Fold this protein.
Amino acid sequence: MGWIMDFFSQNSIPLLIVGLVLNVLTIIFLIINIVTSSNLKHRYRQLVRGTDGKRIENILFEHIDRVEAVHKRLDEAESQLDVFNNRLSFCIQKIGIVRYNAFDDTGSDLSYSIALLDENNDGIIISGIYGRTETVSYAKPVKDGVSNYSLSVEELQALERAKANVLDRVDVRAARSNRQIG
């Protein structure tokens, strides 16, 4: 035990300097630790704000549940969109109209031919022939842009107009803006 006292008494200055350096390093590490922990506390407060003191694990599980619910709803919406797109392909999308005077003895263009086609150019041509004593209507089916029945010149014009009338949302918007400008 005496040799320990002798060692400390002979090396007291270097031991004091080493102790002082270690204390200074400890203080520096303490300051770094305080700054880091305050940043972490700030980030943690931001992360758990509005959670009423719940544990972070519970918050993450709730978030995962919400994300899974959103994915499920998105999958359902995409499925419905596929159904709607399929149905839409069979809806009337192309229309061609021709008005004309079928007889010389009538006053104006009261006769008409209307071609109503879907995305696949399937549909119907409806014609109304106006005369002084009677009006007659005809309906002729169209498959792949062609009718098995003979078509009049006006019905052919209505069919060609319908086939050229591709409704695309971008084109409709452009047409509407052009009409509003002009």
